[in-house]
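In full, the data:

***
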Amino acid sequence: MKVLVVGSGAREHALVRAIALDPMVDEVIAAPGNPGIAALATCVPIGGDGITDKHAVTAIAREHEVDLVVIGPEAPLVDGVADALRAAGIPTFGPSAAAAQLEGSKAFAKRIMAEAGVPTAFAHVCTTMAEVADGLDALGAPYVVKDDGLAAGKGVVVTSDRDEALAHAAACLERPDGRIVVEEFLDGPEVSLFCLSDGLTVVPLAPAQDFKRVGEGDQGPNTGGMGAYSPLEWAPEGLVADVIDRIAQPTIDTMRHLGMPFVGVLYVGLALTSRGPKVIEFNVRFGDPETQVVLDRLVTSLPEVLLAAATGQLDLAEPLVWRAATSVTVVLAAPGYPESPVTGGEVTGAEPADAGEGDEGEGAEETGRGGEGAAYVLHAGTRRGAAGELLASGGRVLTVVGNGPDLAAARGAAYDRIARIQLEGGHFRRDIAERAERGEITVPS
């Protein structure tokens, strides 16, 4: 089996890693990939407009005669790359452009949630500042203001400062066809749940929790994500089944009835409120950095289950099997991230430190996964310099994944490993999963 993975971040590195390690896979092609992915897959450049270029991606899939295409980022999905691949007869894991509106437009997602009866926050869709002001007054503080379109996880402001909320709304509305959503603030801890679908059947992965704010103690602006962990020992019993029954399956059914069958992964971002689980947002792809910890724990063949989803046979797939181990991921960000990331700095210490670490190339592989203190590095925004040195090329540069029998061991492994990586001005949060380790997370009754 040959698989093409589209994308170049740590999420795609995690996908490539899980796919490449599977014995049913003969070769993985990554377009365009990154230096870490290159140790596991054949990286090929994409011409034209890059990953959003339907013709270029389809040409790569045809040239390499792949059996499955997995699209990582949201932009090519919203732009219809999955449609072009399916039209060429290539099995593709990722929704159509029509179905990808669940992430491409928050207003569209709210409409689908309403039709499906999905519990979510009250919201006002606004196209003028007068409507924004009315929405803020109606829902009250803390204010939640979201850019309607794609914003790489950074289009949301949650604040008790009305002027800050208005300023964010104004910036969003200045864009062509600007539209924003003012939402009710949802209390309670947040949970990320990935749900695989072939348009009919829904299969949940293990829940995770991510950390969106750049600073420790959940301070500072939102980012694409600074860390995550799984499993969630504090989550209520029956949570996953409840989310499938009340949220994911009704959404998938509604999309199919509207003529937009959803094939791919539906990311359900939840708040566990005092009134039960409510949807914060939908995404139409694997989230980053939650993917890193979820796939680290998956025993079941990932390419097999993704191919089943892509070909409408998810109902025939065997139940998923998970390692009992705990996984924690910590993101190393470039200086200035997220407001004004400074790229080009040299990264050292990301290569395998020694054979005892269990790595096999580019800091990506380790053989003792699930054991005491295992850790490895996944590349996000990196590139090679003229002399072969590793350079930062994006806001989020690397992801370190640590795992162990419990949160303490997994956190220790991740932080020990990231401490050996140097990037001048680089920063990471030191409190990922800390409150969970201390047993301080509670779900409102």
User: Anything to note?
Assistant: The chain has four domains: 2-93, 122-183, 189-316, 326-437. The longest strand covers residues 263-273. The longest helix spans residues 239-257. The chain has 13 helices and 22 strands.
